[in-house]
């Protein structure tokens, strides 16, 4: 994947670490997506938005805050919120502090679906990832990813 630069400058472990990260991330994301779609009729992105709303004060955030937190464009988040709104999982309202902004609020129906889907996802992640790590491995990964994310 990385070409002659990697072949010249990387050890086998360097290449396996990078490609393993990408492949494991791809597989786990796909499996989580399949699980949530089949069991809860939600995507990972939908659950990410609903989960953030469930933890917010008054279960409400600005649409732009959601986009930033999710690492998605405002237009992408808006399309996801359209779907969630049609299912009555969220409501949009004008922000009282800034009429130009749109607030998104998780409904009771959305909160119930969020709790169910989050539990299902937790069980999956525990079985497919976290439960396969020793405490030392989890600590090492947390340290490495924390450091790398802080500089990315």
Task: Briefly say what this structure is.
This protein is mostly helical. Helix content is 70%, strand content 12%. It has one domain (10-124): Orthogonal Bundle (Arc Repressor Mutant, subunit A), CATH 1.10.10.10.
Defining traits:
mainly alpha, 3-stranded antiparallel β-sheet, 152 residues, 7 helices, 70% helix, Arc Repressor Mutant, subunit A
Provide a descriptive summary of the structure in words.
Helix content is 70%, strand content 12%. With 152 residues, it is mostly helical. Strand 2 and strand 3 (98-106) form a beta hairpin. Helix 3 (44-55) crosses helix 6 (108-128) and helix 4 (63-70) packs across helix 5 (74-86).
Order of helices and strands: HHHEHHEEHH
User: Which homologous superfamily in CATH is the superfamily?
Assistant: Winged helix-like DNA-binding domain superfamily/Winged helix DNA-binding domain
If you compute it from the alpha carbons, what radius of gyration comes out, rounded to the nearest whole angstrom? Answer: 19 Å
Total number of strands: 3
**Strand order across the biggest sheet?**
1-3-2
Average pLDDT, all residues: 94
Please give the structural blueprint.
Layout: H1 3-9, H2 12-40, H3 44-55, E1 60-62, H4 63-70, H5 74-86, E2 90-95, E3 98-106, H6 108-128, H7 135-151
Antiparallel strand pairs: 1-3, 2-3
């Amino acid at each position: 994947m990385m070409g002659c630069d990697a072949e010249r400058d990387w050890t086998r472990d360097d290449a396996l670490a990078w490609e393993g990260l990408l492949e494991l991330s791809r597989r786990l994301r796909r499996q989580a997506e399949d699980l949530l779609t089949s069991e809860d009729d939600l995507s990972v992105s939908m659950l990410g938005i609903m989960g953030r709303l469930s933890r917010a004060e008054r279960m409400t955030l600005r649409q732009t805050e959601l986009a930033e937190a999710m690492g998605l464009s405002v237009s992408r988040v808006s399309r996801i919120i359209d779907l969630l709104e049609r299912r009555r999982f969220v409501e949009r309202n004008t922000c009282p502090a800034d009429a130009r902004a749109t607030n998104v609020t998780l409904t009771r129906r959305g909160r119930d679906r969020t709790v169910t889907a989050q539990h299902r996802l937790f069980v999956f992640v525990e079985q497919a990832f976290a439960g396969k790590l020793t405490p030392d491995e989890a600590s090492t990964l947390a340290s490495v990813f924390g450091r790398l994310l802080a500089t990315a």
